[in-house]
Amino acid sequence: MARLDGVRERRHQPFYDTLVRGIGQSTVNNLVALFGNANVGNRALTNLQVAGVLASDQTYVIKVLRAVLWFQGLDDDEFGAFGSLPDLQTQAAGSNSRAEDLYALMAYGSSFQLNVGDKPMFTAPLWYAPAGGGPSGFSTENSRHVITNGVASHEAILKLGKDIHVPARQNFAVTIEFFPFARLGNGIAAPAGPYAADLSPLDYLNQFDGAKLGQFVVDGIQTRDVQ
Q: In a 3-state reduction of DSSP, which class is residue 202?
């Protein structure tokens, strides 16, 4: 059906793109730009239809920004053999202890920048944009854990003090930058001696071979043609 000239509709619709999603070691690069061409067409990674812009002269008003983080070790019975499914735990060394490290390293060791056109519109550490959702609570299984990026409540999301408008045919992107924790005071750690290297959140993310998910969500009001 052709579009109805002069008729537009508004709806609440988030758009997401993915930094990493899968199991095993990864090759995420620093200063990766989300909402570009890399993931378009793969709904598991993004629901954007056109790289960098909204399709068909749509406009958007960004009201909320969210960072989604999920890490899970595969070295326990949770991912062991189940019926005809294979035993994944023999393939991975990343433990839930390392997974919990990643939540903090990602939150405190990286930042994001929202760009509309060629203009930075919002820059902050990743912890500044909690997901405001996802599984939460406590587990009675000692080898399992449930952690989210912030409290799983819509009251905890980053509500922008001023809406950010994305006009028709205007490109936008979110850039993720990682910052190593540098060795201070000559890197001395008594009694073990000097640290071997700076602490790199990106290296930890890539070397972790459990299940991992990092996504960024822009949330707001979409205006589109009616057809």
A: helix
